[in-house]
């Protein structure tokens, strides 16, 4: 399975698409790689663990992985399952959907986006991956309720890595496109930015350890918001 | 206060002092940003009935214990980077719910700093006494410090050795027998024939891959402690 995924990512990795507004000669290279050792060992675990029936799955990258969802939602009548993978992007999530959908979960909360922006994936590519994820869910587990959450803003005053710079301004643009796609696909879009951003649209300093991730307590607010909107 | 206590202890311990005047400085600090934000979360979360709590450092924090042990009130109280001093300082939060069971695993980060085994063992004993005093009905499961795989370890871990870990575990086992708490030897799960952390279960010689936690939980189930 992983070998297969690696192969297809290699093919995708070589795909070069023309940016719509660029000169005819200008092309954008798409980095669609996702198979790293951390991803592989998480998938190895996922392969060995079967998701129980009627599960609520939190799907995404490190921001999802680090949430103590089960404890915060310990009153849930449905099993809570964490399918976050640190560093994952929309290609990597798409590649591991089959294992999740085989369990026919009750609901999936998908939150991603920032790692796509870190590697400068064009919005169209990310949004197209989201769409493919949604269509896979509809096809293989039509009763699963789909919740697409907005990408989180970051706070570049707190980040050091060069790949995080000049990225926060791209978050609202990506979110607009995710929202429009969710509308077209008739799935629920959840804008979680208002809970976590300051008035300048940056990730609030008091809730993040590093400008990208969330402090453990911030997940309580996240769940409270999802409950207040009756999504949980 | 702490320093004085351990200086005294170390003088008694013998091999750690060259002369009667010489003492070893122990780095007992723990309140870093990650510790504080995790503890803030722990304090905000309501106590549940019949909690089964996993207490420790990053090795504990990295486990998706609720998924591995479904249908029980399993709580993750691991804090990446935590030392035995940090755990002692936050045990009150864990004990407030009067948990059914506590699974403890700590000590490797102390050893990484060069803290002598005697000081770590003294902290283990303080943990046992604190739990017995504040929540006497709680079943205590002290888990052995996991082996490491030296060739895989980054240089910052050069103070670790499997012989030191074995000696620490021997001391822990004696403590557990003396104070009548459960001792769980995780080497049975994670050590290879040479006593090192099995290569295939780790990414860096110390931390566990996600799938290794399945073996851990299976072992606890097999031993009928869950």
CATH superfamily of chain B: SGNH hydrolase
Contiguous runs where pLDDT drops below 50 for at least 5 residues of chain B: 1-18
Structural class of chain B: alpha/beta
CATH architecture of chain A: 3-Layer(aba) Sandwich
- Percent of sequence in beta strands of chain B: 5-15%
Number of helices of chain B: 10
Helix content of chain B: 40-55%
Quick one: how many beta strands of chain B? 5
Helix content of chain A: 40-55%
Task: Report on the architecture of this protein.
The complex is a heterodimer of chains A (232) and B (226). Chain A is α/β, with parallel strands linked by helices and 232 residues long. Chain A has helices spanning 2-13, 37-48, 62-65, 69-72, 90-95, 97-101, 114-118, 123-140, 171-185, 193-196, 218-228; strands at 16-18, 27-29, 56-60, 80-84, 107-111, 145-149, 188-190. Chain A has one domain: SGNH hydrolase (Rossmann fold), CATH 3.40.50.1110. Chain A is built from eleven helices and seven strands. The longest helix of chain A is centred in the middle third of the chain and has 18 residues, at 123-140. In chain B, helix 2 (33-44) packs parallel to helix 5 and helix 5 (84-95) runs parallel beside helix 7 (117-134). Chain B has one domain (33-222): 3-Layer(aba) Sandwich (Rossmann fold). The N and C termini of chain B lie far apart (38 Å). In chain B, strand 4, helix 8 (162-178) and strand 5 (182-184) form a beta-alpha-beta unit. Chains A and B meet through helix 2, helix 4 and strand 4 of A and helix 2, helix 4 and strand 2 of B.
In short:
The complex is a heterodimer of chains A (232) and B (226). Chain A contains 11 helices and 7 strands. By secondary structure, chain A is an alpha/beta fold.
What is the topology?
The complex is a heterodimer of chains A (232) and B (226).
Chain A: H1 2-13, E1 16-18, E2 27-29, H2 37-48, E3 56-60, H3 62-65, H4 69-72, E4 80-84, H5 90-95, H6 97-101, E5 107-111, H7 114-118, H8 123-140, E6 145-149, H9 171-185, E7 188-190, H10 193-196, H11 218-228
Parallel strand pairs in A: 3-4, 3-5, 5-6, 6-7
Antiparallel strand pairs in A: 1-2
Helix pairs in contact in A: 8-9
Chain B: H1 2-13, H2 33-44, E1 51-56, H3 58-61, H4 65-68, E2 73-78, H5 84-95, E3 101-105, H6 108-112, H7 117-134, E4 139-143, H8 162-178, E5 182-184, H9 187-190, H10 212-222
Parallel strand pairs in B: 1-2, 1-3, 3-4, 4-5
């Amino acid at each position: 399975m992983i070998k297969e995924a690696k192969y297809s990512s290699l093919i995708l990795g070589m795909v070069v698409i023309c940016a719509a507004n660029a000169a005819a000669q200008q092309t954008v290279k798409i980095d669609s790689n996702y198979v790293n050792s951390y991803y592989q060992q998480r998938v190895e675990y996922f392969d060995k663990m079967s998701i129980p029936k009627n599960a609520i799955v939190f799907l995404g990258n490190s921001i999802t992985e680090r949430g103590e969802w089960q404890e915060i939602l310990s009153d849930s009548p449905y099993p809570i399952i964490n399918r976050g993978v640190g560093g994952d992007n929309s290609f990597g999530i798409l590649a591991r959907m089959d294992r999740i959908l085989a369990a026919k979960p009750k609901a999936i909360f998908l939150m991603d986006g920032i790692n796509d922006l870190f590697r400068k994936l064009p919005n169209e590519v990310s949004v197209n991956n989201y769409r493919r994820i949604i269509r896979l869910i509809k096809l293989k587990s039509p009763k699963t309720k789909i919740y697409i959450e907005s990408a989180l803003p970051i706070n570049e005053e707190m980040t050091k890595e060069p790949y995080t710079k000049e990225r926060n301004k791209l978050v609202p643009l990506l979110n607009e496109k995710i929202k429009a796609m969710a509308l077209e696909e008739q799935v629920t879009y959840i804008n979680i930015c208002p809970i976590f951003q300051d008035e300048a649209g940056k990730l609030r300093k008091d809730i993040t350890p590093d400008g990208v991730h969330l402090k453990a307590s911030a997940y309580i607010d996240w769940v409270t918001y999802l409950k207040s909107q009756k999504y949980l | 206060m702490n320093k004085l206590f351990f200086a005294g202890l170390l003088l008694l311990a013998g091999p750690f002092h060259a002369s009667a005047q010489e003492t070893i400085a122990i780095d007992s600090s723990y309140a870093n940003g990650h510790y504080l934000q995790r503890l803030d979360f722990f304090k905000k979360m309501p106590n549940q009935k019949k909690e089964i709590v996993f207490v420790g450092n990053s090795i504990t924090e990295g486990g998706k214990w609720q998924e591995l042990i479904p249908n029980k009130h399993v709580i993750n109280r691991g804090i990446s980077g935590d030392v035995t001093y940090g755990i002692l300082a936050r045990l009150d939060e864990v004990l407030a719910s009067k948990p059914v069971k506590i699974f403890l695993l700590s000590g490797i980060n102390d050893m990484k700093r060069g803290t002598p085994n005697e000081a770590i063992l003294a902290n283990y004993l303080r943990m046992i006494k604190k739990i017995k005093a504040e929540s006497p009905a709680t079943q205590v499961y002290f888990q052995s410090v996991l082996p490491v795989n030296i060739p895989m370890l980054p240089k910052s871990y050069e103070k670790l050795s499997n012989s030191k870990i074995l000696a620490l575990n021997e001391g822990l086992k004696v403590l557990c027998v003396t104070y009548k708490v459960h001792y769980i030897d995780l080497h049975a799960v994670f050590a290879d024939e040479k006593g090192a952390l099995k290569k295939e279960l780790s990414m860096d010689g110390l931390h566990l891959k996600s799938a290794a936690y399945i073996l851990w939980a299976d072992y606890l189930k097999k031993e009928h402690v869950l």
